[in-house]
Design brief:
The complex is a heterodimer of chains A (276) and B (321). With 276 residues, chain A is α/β, with parallel strands linked by helices. Chain A is built from eight helices and 13 strands. Chain A has helices spanning 29-39, 53-64, 93-96, 105-113, 154-160, 193-197, 234-239, 259-268; strands at residues 46-48, 70-73, 77-79, 101-102, 119-123, 126-127, 133-134, 137-139, 145-147, 163-168, 204-209, 212-215, 224-228. The chains are: A alpha/beta (276), B alpha/beta (321).
Chain lengths: 276, 321
C-alpha cells in the first residue's frame, strides 16, 4: 500500500512543476477526470489499464472502492494489488515488483480477445460523437496535418473490451462530429455498426472530458451529456463541442472528488505530474 | 556466479563488442525489431551504435519503442517504421517522428500503422512459421484499411459462440532480419534470462532471421540452467552477445537499474527543433565512443541514483528431484 511506498524511486527528476501538497477542497481538472475515471471501475472487474492518466485512475480505484479489481497491462503484467507508488509508464519497476503475473503481450491480449476484460481506458487526439477515436493523424486549420503517436493498444481495447472509458481534453478541435481517421472503433456511424463490421461486443461506455461526462446509451449510440463539471456553462460546453449536444435542464453536475480521493491522489502524485 | 575470468575464452562464445556486433549483423536496408520489451529493457546502446555506424534505409519494427525509434529517425537512419506507437511514453509526442512525417526532415519515412496486438500477432505468425494470424481486433478501422499487411477475412470455421460465418482480421507474418533484445543476464552462448513484462520479446527472437542479445551481465551457463523458466531466448537462436552495463538506459532493467525519468523529460525539451536534436545526438551519441563512454557522461552520481535501492529477490525454486 502507499503508506509503505519506497522513497528511492521518487520522481525527483520531474519536479519541474510548481505544486502544493496542501490538502484543500480545491481540485484540478485532471484530478476530477482521474477520479471520474476511477469511479467507472467496479469491484472485482478486470481492467485493461492504458498509458498515462489511467495508470493513476487504477491505483485510486484499487485503494478506495475496487480493492478486488484486477489490472491488465499490455506489456504482459497482471496485478491484483496496486503498485506501491506513482507510475510514469506501465513498465516502471514498481509496477513489476509484486505483480501477480509477468508474461508476454499475447497472454493479456489473448484474454482481452476472448472476452475476459470488463473495462478498458483510452485516450486520443480526437473523439467523435459516436465515440470513435483518432490517435493517428489530425488536420490543422491550414490544411496540414499533425502526426500523432498511433494506436498503441488502444484499437485492440476499443475492439475487444466489454466497455471502454475515454479521457480527452474538451475542445472543438478534439471533439469533432466525425474523426478524420478512425484509429480505434467506437460505435462507427451509429446503432448496429459494430456488429456489421464484425465486432462482437463492447463499445464506448463513457467519455470524460475537461468539461463534462458523456454516456453512449442514446437510441443511436451517440454521446449523451450526462453531467457537466462545476463552473462550466452549458453554452461554453456546446461551443467547444463539434456536434450538437442535447442539453436537458436541469443539468446534472459532475460529482466532485471527495476528500479521501483527493488525499489519495496527492499522496500518490505529490508533485502533480499527472494531475496539474 | 558472475564470470570473473575472460568469458570470451569459453568454447563457442559469441561474446563481442557492440561495434563488432552491429557491423556483423546489420547493413544498410536491414529490418530490425527492437523495443520488444515495451517500456523496459529497450536496447538503446545498440540503437546508438547503429547511428554511429551511419546505417541507412533501415526498417524499424516494434509495438512501441519509447524514444529509441525517434532517435534513429532523427539521425536519418530510417526508411520505414512498422509500429503501433512512436512517441515519448511519459511526455507524449516525439518530435523527430513528427518532423519526418510532417516535413520530411531529415527525410520522409514510410509509416505502416499497427496496433500492439496486431504487431504481436505478426511476429507470432512468423515465430510459428505460418503466413498470417487471424484476430478479432481492428475491424472497421482505418488501420486495417491502410496497412497492406492487414486484411479482413471470413473464418473458415464457425466459432463456439456463433454458427454463422464470421468476419475476422488477418495480419501477415513479419520476418525481421534482426532482433535486438536486451536481457538482464545471458551466458556467452546467448541464452538469456529476462524478467519483468515480456512484451513480444520471445516471438521477436523466433521471428527474426538473426538475434543479438545485449546483456547487463554475463553469467556462467550453470546460472541459466539453474532457472530454465526464466530463459526467454535460448542461445541456439542467438548470433551475438554483447555485455554492457546500463545498456538499456534510460529505460529500466528490473533489478539492475531504474528508469531515468529525467532523461525522457530532458530529451523532450531538447529535441523540439531538428538543430536541438543534432546537439543532443552529438553529446549523447557521436561524442561518446561506446557505452562505457556514455556511462562516464552520465556520471557516477546519476548512475548511483538510478541503481537498485532495495533488492527484492524471488523465492527460492527447487528444481531438484
Amino acid at each position: 500500500m502507499f503508506l509503505a511506498a519506497k522513497a528511492h524511486q521518487s520522481c525527483s527528476s520531474v519536479c519541474h512543476k510548481n505544486v502544493t501538497t496542501e490538502l484543500t477542497t480545491e481540485y484540478t481538472l485532471a484530478e476530477l477526470m482521474v477520479v471520474s475515471a476511477a469511479r467507472e471501475i467496479k469491484d472485482h472487474e478486470v481492467v485493461y489499464v492504458g498509458m498515462r492518466l489511467p495508470l493513476l485512475a487504477f491505483l485510486i480505484a484499487k485503494n478506495l472502492h475496487a480493492p478486488n479489481a484486477v489490472g491488465f497491462y499490455e506489456n504482459g503484467l497482471i496485478r491484483e494489488t496496486p503498485a506501491s507508488e506513482l507510475l510514469f509508464t506501465m513498465g516502471d519497476p514498481p509496477n513489476i515488483l509484486g505483480a501477480t503475473q509477468a508474461g508476454d503481450m499475447l497472454n493479456v491480449m489473448g484474454m482481452l480477445q476472448s472476452g475476459r476484460v470488463d473495462i478498458g481506458f483510452l485516450g486520443a487526439g480526437e473523439v467523435d460523437k459516436f465515440g470513435n477515436l483518432n490517435s493517428t493523424f489530425v488536420s490543422k486549420g491550414d490544411g496540414s496535418s499533425v502526426r500523432l503517436p498511433g494506436s498503441g493498444g488502444a484499437s485492440d481495447i476499443a475492439s475487444l473490451a466489454k466497455r471502454t472509458v475515454m479521457l480527452v481534453e474538451h475542445s472543438k478541435r478534439r471533439l469533432p462530429e466525425r474523426v478524420s481517421y478512425l484509429t480505434s472503433p467506437g460505435n462507427g456511424d451509429g446503432k448496429g455498426w459494430r456488429k456489421s463490421v464484425g465486432l462482437h461486443r463492447g463499445g464506448p461506455s463513457c467519455l470524460i472530458t475537461t468539461m463534462g461526462v458523456f454516456r453512449f446509451d442514446s437510441d443511436d449510440c451517440s454521446a449523451r451529456l450526462e453531467s457537466i463539471h462545476p463552473e462550466v456553462a452549458s453554452k461554453q460546453l456546446q461551443d467547444e463541442t463539434g456536434w450538437q449536444v442535447e442539453i436537458t435542464e436541469p443539468l446534472q453536475s459532475t460529482t466532485v472528488p471527495s476528500q479521501d480521493e483527493l488525499a489519495l491522489i496527492r499522496k500518490i502524485d505529490p508533485k502533480r505530474f499527472w494531475t496539474a | 556466479m558472475t564470470i570473473t575470468s575472460n568469458p570470451s575464452s569459453s568454447t563457442n562464445s559469441i561474446l563481442m563488442s557492440m561495434s563488432e556486433a552491429i557491423a556483423k549483423l546489420t547493413c544498410d536496408g536491414s529490418s530490425i525489431v527492437m523495443g520488444s520489451g515495451m517500456e523496459q529493457n529497450i536496447p538503446f546502446s545498440a540503437g546508438h551504435e547503429l547511428i554511429r555506424q551511419r546505417r541507412r534505409e533501415l526498417t524499424l519494427i516494434g509495438p512501441i519503442s519509447d524514444i529509441l525509434f525517434d532517435q534513429l529517425i532523427g539521425a536519418g537512419c530510417v526508411k520505414k517504421v512498422c509500429a503501433a506507437w512512436v512517441g515519448n511514453v511519459m511526455m507524449g509526442s516525439a518530435y523527430n517522428f513528427r518532423r519526418s512525417v510532417e516535413q520530411g526532415v531529415p527525410n520522409k519515412i514510410e509509416v505502416v500503422d499497427y496496433s500492439n496486438f496486431a504487431m504481436a500477432c505478426a511476429l507470432h505468425a512468423a515465430a510459428l512459421g505460418i503466413p498470417y494470424m487471424p484476430m478479432r481486433s481492428l475491424l472497421g478501422t482505418d488501420i486495417l484499411k491502410n496497412n497492406p499487411n492487414l486484411i479482413e477475412i471470413e473464418s473458415p470455421f464457425e466459432s463456439h459462440e456463433s454458427q454463422a460465418p464470421e468476419k475476422l482480421s488477418a495480419v501477415r507474418a513479419l520476418h525481421p532480419d534482426l532482433a535486438i533484445i536486451h536481457a538482464q543476464r545471458a551466458d556467452v552462448h546467448g541464452s538469456a534470462h529476462i524478467w519483468g513484462g515480456l512484451g513480444v520479446v520471445a516471438d521477436s527472437a523466433k521471428a527474426a532471421k538473426r538475434t543479438l542479445i545485449v546483456a547487463d551481465e554475463i553469467v556462467e551457463t550453470s546460472v541459466i540452467e539453474s532457472d530454465p523458466n526464466r530463459t526467454v531466448v535460448p542461445g541456439f537462436l542467438v548470433d551475438a552477445v554483447v555485455c554492457e552495463p546500463y545498456a538499456a538506459h534510460p529505460s529500466p532493467s528490473q533489478g539492475k537499474y531504474n528508469r531515468d525519468h529525467q532523461h525522457y523529460t530532458e530529451y523532450h525539451a531538447e529535441t523540439k527543433t531538428h538543430d536541438g536534436f543534432l546537439d543532443w545526438k552529438k553529446r549523447w551519441i557521436l561524442d561518446v565512443p561506446d557505452r562505457a563512454g556514455y556511462r562516464r557522461l552520465l556520471g557516477d552520481a546519476r548512475l548511483l541514483d538510478l541503481s537498485v535501492g532495495e533488492s527484492a529477490y524471488a523465492a527460492e525454486t527447487d528444481f531438484g528431484y
